[in-house]
Amino acid sequence: MAVELSERLVIGISSRSLFDLSEENRIFKEQGLAAYVEYQHQNRDKLLEPGPAFQVIRRFLRLNKMLRLEMDDPAVEVVIMSHNSAETSFRIWKAISHYKLPITRAVFSGGESLAKYLEAFSIDLFLSSDIKDVQRAINDNCAAAHLRNQSMAAKEISFPLRLAFDGDCVLFSDEAEQKYKEGGLALFQEHEAAKANVPLPVGPFAKFLGKLILLQQRFRDFGFNKPPIRTALVTARNAPAHERVLFTLQQWGLWLDESFFLGGVEKGPILKALGTHIFFDDQPIHLESAGRNEVVGALVPTIKPLEEPESEFPEEE
C-alpha cells in the first residue's frame, strides 16, 4: 500500500539550504556543469558542512523522537529536493548519514524545476536557496521561502523551536499591502478600519500554520503541557489595524502563541528577544534586521509571473 504523506507535516528542503554547497555553486557558475560534476566526484569523501536551515530541520526531525514515533510513521517528514542529478547526490546522502538525519525521501531533478513536485509529495513548507523555485512554489500557493543568513548555520538551537511570521503577504494575502502601496498609511488604516469585521484572505503560510497548531495539539494529547514548538506573529501593524488581524485568526480558528504589533519598530531586536530560530517575511529590510540580530531570515516572495528559463543544477541564487 502506498505511503500517505498528507497527514504529516512535510517539509521540502533544498540541498543547498540543508548543507553548505557555496563552493560547489561557485564552481558551477564560474566553470560550468562539467567542472562541477568533476569536483563532486573528486570530493565525494569530503563531508558537507551545515547550511542555513540545518539546525531548524534537525529540530523538526527530533520532534518525532519526542513523540516516540518510528521512522515508518513520523509526525514530521523531511524530503530533500535538489537540482543535482543522482550521479552527483552521493555527498548529500553521505552528509545525511553522518549527521544522523532521519531523511529517507529525495528528489534529484537533474536541473529541472523542483516546484512541480511539491504537490506530489504533499509539501507543507518548501525552503530553498533558489529564489526561482521559491517563486514558482508561491505562484502555486505553496508555503515557500528563500533562505538567508548562511552564517547562522552552525548555531545550536534548543527547544522550544520558535517560528515567527509576518502577517500581510505571509499568513494573510497581500490585499492590505496593496492598499498601502496605493495610498500610503492613511489609505491603509482607512481600508482596514472599514473591513475590521471582514476576514483577510488566506496567505501562503496559513495552511502551514494550521499544520503547526495541529502538531502542537498532538504534543498536548501526548502529555506535554508546553509543546516544544512556539509560534509568533511579528507584524508592522499596530492599533487600530490590529483588529482585522485578530478577527481573521478568530474566524480561521488559528491562534499563535505570541503576537507583536510593532507599528514601525525594528523587528530584529524583537525577534532576538523572542529567541526566534527562523522568521518568515516578505520584506528584505526586515530580514536584514533579523540577520543583524542572529536570526535566520526566510524571504516570502509575492505572486508574480516568472519568465526566466529553468536553471540547470545546482541551485542558483
Molecular structure report:
This protein has 317 residues and is α/β, with parallel strands linked by helices. It has helices at residues 15-18, 22-31, 33-42, 54-66, 90-98, 131-139, 175-194, 206-221, 242-252, 267-274, 284-292; strands spanning 9-14, 76-82, 105-108, 125-128, 144-147, 161-165, 229-235, 258-261, 278-281, 296-299. It has eleven helices and ten strands. The chain is 38% helix and 15% strand. It starts with 8 loop residues before the first strand and ends in an 18-residue tail after the last strand. The chain has two domains: 9-150, 3-Layer(aba) Sandwich (Rossmann fold), CATH 3.40.50; 161-293, Rossmann fold. Strands 3-2-1-4-5-10-9-6-7-8 form a ten-stranded mixed sheet, sandwiched between helices.
Task: Compose a concise summary of this entry.
The chain is an alpha/beta fold and 317 residues long. The chain has helices spanning 15-18, 22-31, 33-42, 54-66, 90-98, 131-139, 175-194, 206-221, 242-252, 267-274, 284-292, and strands at 9-14, 76-82, 105-108, 125-128, 144-147, 161-165, 229-235, 258-261, 278-281, 296-299. The mean pLDDT is 87.
